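Re-run requested by the PI after the first attempt was lost when the workstation crashed. Everything re-entered from the original request form. Ligand of interest: WT7.
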Amino acid sequence: MRTMTPSNIGSYEERLKDFSWSLSEKELGYKAGDDINIAWHCTDRVCKLGKAGKTALIWEGLGGASKSYTFNDIRLASNTIASFLQGLGIRREERVCLFMDRIPELYLGFLGVLKMGGVAQPLFSAFGDESLLVRLENAQTTAVLTTRKHAGKVRKIREKLPHLKHVIVVDDDGKKPLQTGEVAFSLEKAEPVEDFKAAATKAESPSVLHYTSGTTGQPKGVRHVHYSLISQYLTAKWVLDLQDNDIYWCTADPGWVTGTSYGIIGPWSLGVTQCVLDAGFSAEAWYQFIQKHKVTVWYSAPTAIRSLMKAGEEAVKKHDLESLRHLASVGEPLNAEAVVWSQRVFGLPFHDNYWQTETGSIMITNLPGMKIKPGSMAKPFPGITAALLDMTTFSPMTDPGKVGLIAVKPGWPAMLRGYWNNEEAFKKKFRDGWYLTGDRATLDKDGYFWFVGRDDDVINTAGHLVSPFEVESALLEHPAVAESGVVSKPDEINMEVVKAFVTLKPGNEPSEDLKLEIMNFIRKKLSPLAMPQEIEFTPLLPKTRSGKIMRRVLKAKEWGQEIGDTSTLEND
Ligand code: WT7
């Protein structure tokens, strides 16, 4: 039988009354002006509270390799990494990139960087050399922690990165000599550092730099600070309902914000045990993992849930999943059918929640105990003032069913403090005292938010944002490509996939081989996510009279929508 415990939040309505973030500060023992260091809170403080011997991380890799760490182990490991980085001469506020699969060193390295006062810059390990280059160049990154498997991509671009002083290989086996400027570090072989004084960072000291894609220009570095912990702790406690006996599984990769805010900071600041599976998706392997580790709280994403639905109910029935007690989802619209399905097969609904890299923590959410309307993101977290703004006047509106822009009143602890070296883009995110998310939604008469779509051309594929601009720029580097227009195309599982319309340079003939070659070119340069799933060669692209490619027209064709006003089209 499934055991149900009272939720941490209790009553949403009660919590709304007199809500103040000072509640979270108090629970974390923080007062204005104190030092605050995320890594110290996630390790040393938890140990001080008597949980040194409690399991912090259960890790499983491909082929069944497994490791387990207590809170004292992660305290020591983050001390050891922090001290090693300091020893190399890396200073506070310098950017240290983590570029590796979901191995323990990624989680422990993240904490190590924060502990010595550095800025952690996690990058998705599937990124190709071009994706890596623009992000390391932009952040003027000082050091990269990586593994043998991914070091080649760093080597390829090293010469173009004058700021990159250290490449640290965390799994060197001594078989192949490292190159100049590369250094080996082994957590297993290093002498554990028992005492390390965590950097005396303050609320506004920089902590994490996550890159996110926009419609125009290169990806932007979203600047977060140590004070973000105040939001991340309380949202993990109330939305994910993490409790002392939980075994928590967040399926997100820390290359993306869900994997850091709720795959490291939230659970560990609460002293909760979490498990990590460093393997690709398979329904069988996922259910097995839940059964084996008796996962109680599961935070995942719509694409994964749709894939599970596709794998069918039989796969669910073969496993004992009774340990599960709370499910949550983020990253893209969670369709109503997925919520109904999960209620039917797991006996529990997935609780949809909405936020962004920029918001750092959950904004709009189905909280435990709240009435679930399948397909809705529900209501703002206490302490979050979210509204819909009229699309033209930008004034707040509550008309049921009318589409507006999702906006949030600035001031919650985890809000971005800026985009790295891009003040202009940051300013554009605000209007009349509101932070503009760039998403559209409707409200119903009960004040529930219903996601409609993005207000820009960014493609959300399997919960990951891909910039059409970035793909178009990379396509231009292929010798056969003259021009391209990149848009989303509907997909049953990933919701959207990347589609490229391409015109070829004279002397190149359209062919299936050429399509595959171009796809592969993008996969290697950018990532498998950014790779167009479909390429359509076309002699002409729709353009405005000023020569801008009209993605809107291409997109409408893919989605079977009306094209709308094309009066500015050049070749109509
Ligand atoms: C964009 C943010 C922080 C979560 C991981 C993604 C879309 C996010 C939902 C949801 C519909 C959603 C929005 C948002 N999105 N959650 N529950 N329903 N759409 O972070 O990469 O910064 O992407 O993902 O468009 O703006 P991100």
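Saved to the shared folder this time. The domain at 12-440 is CATH 3.40.50.12780 (Rossmann fold).
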